[in-house]
Amino acid sequence: MKKKLSWILVIAGIMLIAYPSINEYMEVRDQAALLEDMNETYQAAEQASIEEDHEVEVSFEVLYPIDDYDKEGISKIMNIPSIDLTVPIVDGISDANLKIAPARFETSKRPGEMGNFAVAGHRYYTYGRDFNRLGEVALGDKIEVIVGTNSYTYTVSEVFVVEPEEIWVLDDVPGMRTITLVTCTPIRVATHRLIVRGELTSYKKTETRTEK
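RE: above sequence
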């Protein structure tokens, strides 16, 4: 009986050690599946509109609508080349959403709109996952957000740390189109919040989505 009990304890210990890795593997798999689904949807939309080959005058004052993709359950894709990051962005801050991908604060603006497009993400221990390397982002780095065939590029203008209760970072900056990325810092301790803020500097229509 004692031998059997000791084996049970050993197995239980192995499971406790392995659970975080197994759980994270499943979350990474779900994120990859979401990106693949979005890829297929974008490709179908691009094929359907391929005959509409004409010049379009673009300005920041008149941005293309993005609601159609949200209604279909399709979110956004964010690329940060300086840290080799490509992730989907889901709408709504919740434990379930944040386990899959970074998430947009629903009270914040959408990409390209006047105001603040705010996104939170986990700072996982795994190198390069979600906002794990966000602390490496520097002033002048680019953050690209793709919604369908609309590509919005923000240039990083501020990187700073705040207390968890300093929610003013989610407020709109009058007269500006900004993106604000929020994550915990330091890694493993998470006593503060790391903020990366950028300003919209370019917009374009693109027929092919940027791949990681």
